[in-house]
Design goal:
Elements: E1 4-8, H1 13-24, E2 30-34, H2 39-49, E3 56-59, E4 62-65, H3 67-75, H4 79-84
Parallel strand pairs: 1-2
Antiparallel strand pairs: 1-3, 3-4
Helix pairs in contact: 1-3
Length: 86
Amino acid sequence: MAKVVMYCTAVCPYCVAAERLLKSRGVTEIEKIRIDLDPARQEEMITRSGRRTVPQIFIGDTHVGGFDDTAALDAAGKLVPLLASA
């Protein structure tokens, strides 16, 4: 299974929803990077994703986006194959 990295904050309902969705698709480990604890990581997230909002999810080297993007990918049947690809 591909490595999953999620930039998040402590109080983010979309982060919780994204984690729930990923776990429902078989993800057992998510590397969570808390940008509210380390401002340098927030800059890293913006540089990697081009976005300022959380969550920002990466599956392997692929930037998936936020919760809405991840849910849309799942609805299109493309999330599970992406998770299995690495």
